[in-house]
Amino acid sequence: MKIIVDAFGGDNAPLEILKGSAAAVAAYGCDILLCGDESVIRKVAADNQISLAGMEIVHAPDVISMEDEPGEVVKTKKNCSMAEGLRRLAAGEGDAFVSAGSTGALLIGSTLLVKRIKGIKRCALAPILPSDSGFYMLIDGGANVECRPEMLEQFGIMGSAYMEKVMGIKAPKVGLANVGTEPTKGGELQHEAFSLLSKAPVNFIGNVEARDFPAGVCDVLVADGFTGNVILKLTEGVAGTLFGNIKGILKANLKGKLAAAMIMPGLKAFKKRMDTDEYGGAPLLGTSKPVFKAHGSSNAYAFQNAIRLACDFAKGNVIGTIEESLQGSK
Amino acid sequence: MKIIVDAFGGDNAPLEILKGSAAAVAAYGCDILLCGDESVIRKVAADNQISLAGMEIVHAPDVISMEDEPGEVVKTKKNCSMAEGLRRLAAGEGDAFVSAGSTGALLIGSTLLVKRIKGIKRCALAPILPSDSGFYMLIDGGANVECRPEMLEQFGIMGSAYMEKVMGIKAPKVGLANVGTEPTKGGELQHEAFSLLSKAPVNFIGNVEARDFPAGVCDVLVADGFTGNVILKLTEGVAGTLFGNIKGILKANLKGKLAAAMIMPGLKAFKKRMDTDEYGGAPLLGTSKPVFKAHGSSNAYAFQNAIRLACDFAKGNVIGTIEESLQGSK
């Protein structure tokens, strides 16, 4: 298994990317193809005693930043680490590609350089969110602001394949994000997507109301990218605000600090369960080869997890499964 | 000030509605016109020692339930307490109408029996949500699943008028729910709504990302009813899940229980701040006379608050302000 890594993507690149890659080589025995400025990679590795064993380096001097227009990845920034990695993936020089860089650039670059699976209308970003019963996949998390019903059907098919093959869930429950559970709820997009998903080769459980998302009533939550992005960011926002307030109460005075010490093990276990670093980021589903988006804020641990999931993404033959399901849905 | 009350709307009607109404008469000195089955009202009041001083009763024997199709409020259930109250409001027999009954029925009934403000395209439900800096209004909370840009502009104008006149916020900050802060973010609906709101007679602060809603960066958050409903219910869902887990940690063992006792005052104050009963429900904005939707689960305290807000809604001349703003936006 060889994973192609964008060594210059994300807030903590290249140091945390190199650390995470080295840890992944040690833990999973995979090979890594690092894309980025070779001299900088070698210097950062040497300065921080990071072993480059099991890793090759492909020199790519440019960097596409969060400030760049996403389209620049195939225009003025053709020689950036992300574009180079995607070209190598397309050429079959590795089994999967991982980047913590700009989501927009990764979407455009993947679509143009790696191409979509035949028949897939749009690629979607599919983050994994914590829930009361474990976790669930949200698809689309924000790649496609405007969607047609057949795109939502395909999101359900792709998400189901990933959750089964990579996350090990048998017959994943697929739900449609809606304003009520009755089939007549929502607008035209939801009505038609409901009808298509009912006939698709997935375990469709119907509409799911937003109140029930965090409870984990489904394994794959299908939404257009606008709604999905709101779901993703609002979940983070509400959780962050509440944790901030609880923290404030626990730090307010001596009693609070004593209380904090008493419930620390429980709080820590809960925090770990809620920690998205465990899930490493989000697969990009719909490309003809596995592309994995690590969190922009990835530290070494999160990036190592992203590499592990990219290995499973390739090993699990998710893309072959999606291709078969597309045949089944026709 | 005379408030018309639907005595048979909501999960806890008529008992909690009667208690809340009696408390409102005592606290605010308003008069109340109770709509509902007169003999039942008199019996429940007598059985529970609730004074009916300051209240008149209009006999309306039917009840529209959550199971009824909303449209039945003007068809087979014409004699229900809600329809009767709306007709009395339209006839000028009271200054505002409050119901904890079916939201769908209230929307249809208000639109058909009370009518919209001239020029207003759609009525919107405008719940108040807690935020880190106090609270904010979400408009539309779910009345209109599919929206046009000019509807979003009007939601901003109506929300701004209410927050200024009823909640006492000077030049309320109006934000547009979107997937990023740049004006180019979102789909066609958001682009056009952004442009219209920029020229509208409100303090428009631009797009707001979902991560920032709970921080309270704006006083009025404008969204189409589909997105708004997801925001409303997901906020409740995430908060409920997190509180449930924290509660579990605090009840897990003796240490947890001791810790709970130590931080109880802080937790209670925080819970009160998050408690939507304080805000009593949501105004329905766009009708030609004040209509206020109390929570379906309202207890006496929440319903009393709803009556207070309905009084302020009428006193504040919100509808006159909206009419003036509509002139200004042309």
UniProtKB/TrEMBL annotation, chains A, B:
<keyword id="KW-0444">Lipid biosynthesis</keyword>
<comment type="similarity">
    <text>Belongs to the PlsX family.</text>
</comment>
<dbReference type="Pfam" id="PF02504">
    <property type="entry name" value="FA_synthesis"/>
</dbReference>
<protein>
    <recommendedName>
        <fullName>Phosphate acyltransferase</fullName>
        <ecNumber>2.3.1.274</ecNumber>
    </recommendedName>
</protein>
<keyword id="KW-0443">Lipid metabolism</keyword>
<dbReference type="InterPro" id="IPR003664">
    <property type="entry name" value="FA_synthesis"/>
</dbReference>
<comment type="subunit">
    <text>Homodimer. Probably interacts with PlsY.</text>
</comment>
<dbReference type="GO" id="GO:0043811">
    <property type="term" value="F:phosphate:acyl-[acyl carrier protein] acyltransferase activity"/>
</dbReference>
<dbReference type="InterPro" id="IPR012281">
    <property type="entry name" value="Phospholipid_synth_PlsX-like"/>
</dbReference>
<keyword id="KW-0594">Phospholipid biosynthesis</keyword>
<comment type="function">
    <text>Catalyzes the reversible formation of acyl-phosphate (acyl-PO(4)) from acyl-[acyl-carrier-protein] (acyl-ACP). This enzyme utilizes acyl-ACP as fatty acyl donor, but not acyl-CoA.</text>
</comment>
<comment type="pathway">
    <text>Lipid metabolism; phospholipid metabolism.</text>
</comment>
<keyword id="KW-1208">Phospholipid metabolism</keyword>
<keyword id="KW-0963">Cytoplasm</keyword>
<keyword id="KW-0808">Transferase</keyword>
<keyword id="KW-0012">Acyltransferase</keyword>
